[in-house]
Design a protein that fits this description.
The chain is an alpha+beta fold and 189 residues long. The protein has 5 helices and 10 strands.
Length: 189
């Protein structure tokens, strides 16, 4: 298995370059000083929300922390290997998101590969008003709940639903599931 990029040292370097103490970044980001210290030392795996809050407080794009290869603007094709693709744990240990979109597109158009172990689920709070998600099942099957509606989606099927309400993607089945998840922000036509 390929190793994910080391976020802790990058985060520490960016914080220090901005002249911020741990306490200063904790206050600016809303992330506790203890959690921030653990992330910088590589002792904690931050959630997407934590990374988002930290990059916003530092005035960075998420790409600034997670991209390991320099992007060459004049290259006809830029390839990121799996280790350079940001991995986000969904919280319960059985859900893993791979951020496939450039991190600077977060909030506009995002796409992820979501892997769910049997029994795992990815629970989300409401996104910005008008946000929608599209979950296409590439392997296995899933159950999607948005607001008060719930539906099972089989291999090859796509669930389209409002994501500005509490929602979740779950795998209540016996086989692992793999999903292409596209999030369309409210500003996206």
């Amino acid at each position: 298995m390929l190793e994910p990029p080391e976020l802790g040292p990058r985060l520490r370097d960016r914080r220090q370059a901005k002249g911020l103490t741990l306490e200063g970044l904790a206050t600016a980001s809303g992330v506790s000083r203890s959690m921030l210290s653990q992330v910088e030392r590589g002792e904690a795996n931050p959630t997407f929300a934590t990374l988002w809050n930290l990059t916003q407080a530092l005035g960075l794009n998420l790409d600034d922390l997670v991209t390991t290869e320099p992007v060459v603007d004049d290259a006809p094709v830029v390839v990121l290997d799996r280790a350079a693709t940001p991995r986000l744990d969904g919280g319960d240990g059985g859900a893993v998101l791979w951020l496939l979109a450039p991190a600077d597109r977060v909030g506009d158009v995002e796409w992820y590969e979501l892997c769910l172990a049997p029994g795992a689920r990815l629970v989300s709070q409401p996104h910005t008003e008008g946000t929608n998600e599209h979950a296409t099942v590439l392997d296995g099957a899933i159950s999607v709940t948005a607001g008060y509606g719930a539906v099972d989606v089989e291999l090859g099927g796509t669930a389209r639903y409002a994501a500005d309400v509490p929602h979740q993607i779950a795998n209540p089945f016996d086989e692992p599931a793999r999903v292409l998840l596209v999030v369309l922000g409210s500003e996206t036509p």
